[in-house]
Design a protein that fits this description.
With about 80 residues, the chain is mainly beta. The chain has 1 helix and 4 strands; from the N terminus they run βββαβ. A hairpin with a 4-residue loop joins strand 1 and strand 2.
Amino acid sequence: MNDWTIEYSDQYRWWSVYEFGIYPRSSVLAGQDMKSYRESYPTLEEAQAAHPEAIVGYRDPMNYFDHLSDEEGVG
């Protein structure tokens, strides 16, 4: 799975492009969605021109962390 999104940041006032994949087996988040920042653009039009495959809108990877230890240095 390699999906792309273009998301607007009110805080920074730019459009950010993210790529989605799957965390590898070596990660503590193995098998879950991985959201990776790729680039930012001042306008939506520029972001869409550079990444026509991307969907406009926020996407939460919905990762869960309940399998991780609450203790520092453990795990």
